[in-house]
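for the writeup, i need someone to sanity check this before i put it in the appendix. the sequnce is what the collaborator sent (i think, or maybe the updated version? ugh). structure was predicted straight from it, no edits. if anything looks off just tell me and ill rerun, i have time this weekend
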Amino acid sequence: MKRTLLALLLLTSGLAYGQSLGTAGTLRGKVSDPSGAAVPGATVSLSNDLTLYRREATTSASGEFEFSNIPPNVYHFEVDAAGFQRIHRDLTVRSAVPVNLELALEIEKQVQSVTVGAEAPLVETTPSAHADADAALFAKLPETSIATGLSDIITLSTPAVVADSDGFFHSLGDHAQMALSIDNQPITDQQGSLFSTQIPSNAIESIEAVYGGTPAEYGDKTSLVVTAVTRSGLGQQPHGDFAVEYGSFGTIDQKGDYSFGKAKWGQFFAVNSSRSGRFLDTPEYRPLHDIGNNMNVFSRSDYQPSTSNMLHLDVLAARNWFQVPNQYDQQASGQDQKQMVRSFSISPGWVHVFNPNTTLASNVFVRRDLINYYPSRNAFDDLPATMSQTRSLTNLGVKTDLNYLNGRHNAKFGVQITDTILTERFTLGLTDPTFNPVCLDDDGNAVLNPGLTNPAQCPTAGYQANPDLSPGLVPYDLTRGGSLFNYYGHANIRQQALYAQDTINFGKLTLNLGFRWDRYDGIAKGTQPQPRAGLSYLIAPTKTVLRIAYSHSYETPLNENLVLSSATGAGGLAANVFGAQGSIPLQPGIRNMYNAGFEQNIGKRLVFEGDYFWKYTRNAFDLDTLFTTAIFFPIEWGHSKMDGFSSRLSLRQYKGLTGYTQFGHTRARVFGPENGGLIFPDTSLPSDYVVRIDHDQAFQSTSHVQYQPLKNGPWVAWTWRFDSGIVASAIPDLGSVLGLTGDQQAQIGFYCGSQVATVGSPITTCNAPYPQWGAKLVKIPAPGAENDDLNPARVRSRNLFDVAVGTDNLFHTERRRWTLRLEAFNITNKLAVYNFLSTCSGTHFVAPRSYRAELGIAF
């Protein structure tokens, strides 16, 4: 079936003129004078001063114009022709159905001064809470790495998102619960340097991030839905950009893009490469064994010879190679673990126009990620274990939508069918005899005698049995004569979905109604009906929009290492090797989410929006990291309760000045039992225990301001990020800190009175009264005050500042423009950690102060 659909798409004739794909829209029209004659040479523009989107066109000899590939949003539309009065209109584009305009100009009256007219409203009446960003805006945002550029855009431009290490982020209290749609290709697997290489930021025209009132079109991962519209060469004169960057840690980047086309076809390419000595966030302040590189190529082809059909093709190929960062003890032992990630994606699509109100869009896609994790050549160089992995994830599918736009209705009906093929190979062997000792001496220290492999031997040898022993791991303890644990697993995850949604406009009242049905047929199985509804109301005199929404969704398990993670429970792997409490594979989750919010226009230049959310999930997902590696396993909590707010104040562009500030709060509580993964909680805990997961953060904010008074002229940008600190549950009290190694204590700056822990000198006893003991980078509760739910330990708050200056035309030339950009990240050199001993992520330091210079040419 998949081959047939692909062949039909590739062989379709009579392809499109002026159609857009996915969620992007098309605007076309004709400009005439009072007599009905065509007006050639008129300037037509479409703009949004909040996202900085702007497009211009000139009417043809027949008075016609067209804009394609328009991101969904509210726009200000203008027509300007000599001798005629200027036309101003406010337009909303939220459908793939083309918008057609017939515009009649009036003769300009000489006695009357030209008036500016109305401008597009700053508030949107859609019931969904969302944030928009176009290339003109995010091109000036600080991008930490080419490999994670999309994550940077989402984190810095979406109020409901909190930054995490290695380009990850937490969306509304969840990790990895994001659905990404690129030109109508759905992607719900993790994107980033550790899992699947991302689409490069210079290939993206715009993004829309929906964090409340999720449309029925989207499923699987619904905490955040990001739709990305890529750049197109359709109707473009040949032009391109190329730049070379050099920065701290020996970072060298090259990036370029080129587009060209005619009215009926277009081609766009983006090619990027990067090499850095600090490729990933490190478990030590100083980067150790952290060299990595990335290369990606993206191509988008459009072909549309008629007014009824369009064919497009997106192709992405990418690769990440990196060393896994070491801690000091691992560096001393010679640990040399590496990982390679190779990805490709091919997505052809077809759009057909039946009539002015109805279009059909269909995408076929294949995407593959291949991950190889390599151990050190000498297994005993790896601490505390040596491991290797080869796994692949291949996603095949088709998505077809019927779009209907007429009167008060903007409807979409669709079907999505996917098949995800998972193959996993994994080996593990313990190399540290103190990690899972069989016996302990009288002082509680590990007994290193390799001949002791059974707890029954301990009393005879004069020792005591280790009460925390994991007996299933003893056969794989290489220090006690064991052998490598070898695992091979394979699974097909088949999914089918039907959905219908309609946005109905009743003037000031807008209603979203949707219904989705999912069937999940993987290691676990299930079906789920999912009603969705949202409502917004415009109070016109005050320019206020009130909105509420409800979403019922079917959250599916994370696919990365899903096969092994689903087999670790009792009745799974032989002898229950890893001691899991669960006995069933990871099950799909069921979520009910509620949103309430508003938008408020403030004067002519400002808009404020706020949203509060409540999420209740049965079978809530997260990740466990294996030791200090880059290997992660999905886990599942019994249920979760999350709530919080997000707000944003945006400044409409004024004489080259634009900016925004966004802030939020997330309370993330999860309840046992925990299922899946390779690292398991204390088995003495009750099955319904509650903890604040490390996605919980009391307050976070991002502010960005940029100023460019002249087009292509000099500019300056400033970004301020504040995070109050996530939960650090591994060190709830003084006793837990005293049990850490010297290196771990030094990582957080632990002190007791005047004594400060170092790598070689841990603090093992502390009799100083509180608060004469503590940690510089982690806030540990006072004795007796710690509570896993109400008062957990937290990473300390941090303020990070980034500054960039540059010019888009260094030598004031016309045909070829030289560009220059200078950036400074973390300019105060704030010493901080993202997380510490997190079971989800490990330990990672925020990057210290660094610099980058970029020289480029636009032609």
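Confidence is low (pLDDT under 50) at residues 1-19, 110-118. The radius of gyration is 28 Å.
thx in advance!!
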